[in-house]
Amino acid sequence: MTPLVAGGYAPLQKYLTDRYAERVVLTFSEIEDLIGFTLPALARQEQAWWAEPIADSPRSDQSRSWTQAHRTATPNLQARKVLFERE
Hints:
- The protein has 87 residues and is an alpha+beta fold.
- The protein has four helices and three strands, in the order H-E-H-H-H-E-E.
- The chain is globular.
- The two termini are 17 Å apart.
- 20% of the residues are buried.
- The mean pLDDT is 89.
């Protein structure tokens, strides 16, 4: 069993881990409902917030939540949705 990430993004990791579908699409609002707080403004404005960290850089709490669930995150900022695909 994969350990849950620390911090507020653990519920997102658990949700993604528990989904059998190869692709899961969540709106920003659905993600906020899962984690219990509002996503930061950068999540709504910058693709980089959702990007994988540069090699040898520490992972952010949010990116650990989907990478530890064996997913990648592809945001559509205009539609306010994120596609999480199984790696």
